[in-house]
Write a structure and sequence with these properties.
alpha+beta, single chain, 3 helices, 113 residues
Length: 113
Amino acid sequence: MEYAPSTVFITGQAKPSKEDAISSVYNVFFVSFIVDIETDIIADATCNSVRNMTQDFIRSLLVGQNLATGIDAMVQDIQHRFFGLVQKTLIVALKDAHNRYMMVKKNIIQQNN
């Protein structure tokens, strides 16, 4: 897959709880995004999960959302629609990715001025 020159790759991470099946496979849960820096829209998303269905569902919740201004809406969507054991971990990783994205965007803007 090819992405536009205006896109960036961002990853957020969080430590899964010991009760979550993912913790037996991975020490860290991550969610990664391809984001259009001009619009802040998530063009693609992935995460490390035990099941493909989990990854697909999380992707469906996040792709098309605005990573700069839509964080609260994405968190609400996750809380109301995603009831996997990794729900809280996903929210922490999403917020981490949001913070990283805002820092990257700020640096890019400063470089262009």
